[in-house]
Amino acid sequence: MDSSRRVENGRLQATTHAQQHDDALTPDGYRAWFASMRRAHAVAALAVIGVTAILYPFLAPASALFQLAMAGALLLLLVLPHAALDQYAALIVLQPRLGRLWPLGFMVIYGVLAVSVVAGWMIAPQILLPALILLAALHYGLGDVEEGSLWRYPEIVARGLAPFSLAVLFSLPQVTAFAGWLVLDVPMATRVIYDWALPVALAWQGLWALVILRSLWQTLSGHGDGMRAVVRVCEMAVIVLAFAMLPPLIAFVLYVGLVHAPRHLFDFAARNPAIGNPSRAMMRVLRATILPTAMTIALLALMIFFFIDPAMPHAYSLRIAIWLVSAFAVPHAVFTFLALRGFTGLREMRAEAGSQSRR
Fold first, then answer.
1. Which of 9, 204, 259, 282 meets the CB 3.0–4.6 Å disulfide criterion with 269?
2. 155: CB partners within 8 A, 6+ apart
């Protein structure tokens, strides 16, 4: 039975479950529920991003301060909750290997990676920045692409590089100035962007077009999952619209907060089909984000109150904030790759392990 037939059968089982709540979904029905949820979320997220892209130039102030305040608020409200579950990803990866010592392993690995990133910013930022972009592109691409054939690999590259390539193509002067400020070397950053980043972004357009053309062919020919292809094309089009109409920082944070982060939460709930009750699994994941998110926000507020000097130049404070965000982002991407999504797709729990955790 091919994958599209399995998904269709799963949808039928999910519909039956909606009518008869007393029976748990089969694993295929469970997977189909989350496939439908990913598509419904994509439609809602794209609608919000599209409306924001159209109205922002007319309603939002043009000041950099407003952009930073909006980006910061979106990071705290939309991006932070999905990153607050890193300890659960570490539990998945480390507990089978370290047993009860897994929290210690988590703290050591997390701390070593975070400190290494901060040291990289201080010692060789011109090397660290491209490495961070490549890691982020892999992280976003794996999160955006669902399971499929070998075509998923070029799509991972296309989708992962999309926010960075679009930022370069639509906002080249701003990106160049920002990169030079961030690595403390404007001439070097300018050479790297014009000699390397811009040619890569131009070549990326061909890969982006290939993914779109294949999706359109799937939709018109009836081969594969036509609805998935339609949503994919719409998503790619709206992301282009966002980077064309919005400041690159706002477009990037909207993509991460509204498109990427919710899919990360879906993966935590979807990885155990033996649960059989997807809505309950999703609510458990959402509840699990509340306390870590609140504690992180409180800790950030205390750090700002006690350690940030009001007389410190704003540019210096912003650079330190970016260093810290990237220091947290690297272990997040590593644990996500090991626990949730690899090159072949979602890493599901084994059937015997999943049945033991079902309640």
1. 282
2. 141, 145, 148, 211
User: What is the DSSP annotation of 293-329?
Assistant: HHHHHHHHHHHHHHH--TTS-HHHHHHHHHHHHHHHH
Question: What is the DSSP secondary-structure string of 195-206?
Answer: IIIHHHHHHHHH
- Give the C-alpha separation, 222 to 216, whole Å: 10
Cα 294 from chain centre: 20
How far apart CA 240 and CA 50 sit, in angstroms, is 10
Residue 350: CB atoms within 10 A of its CB come to: 10
Helix (H) or strand (E) holding 71: helix 64-74
Q: Considering the entire predicted model, what is its pTM? A: 0.87
Could you tell me the two tokens for 293? 């998110």
Q: How far is Cα 222 from Cα 55, in angstroms, rounded to an integer? A: 36
Contact call for residues 108 and 353 (beta carbons, < 8 A): no
> pLDDT tens digits, residue range 270-318?
998 988 899 999 999 999 999 888 888 888 888 777 777 777 777 788 8
Per the document, the length of the chain is 359
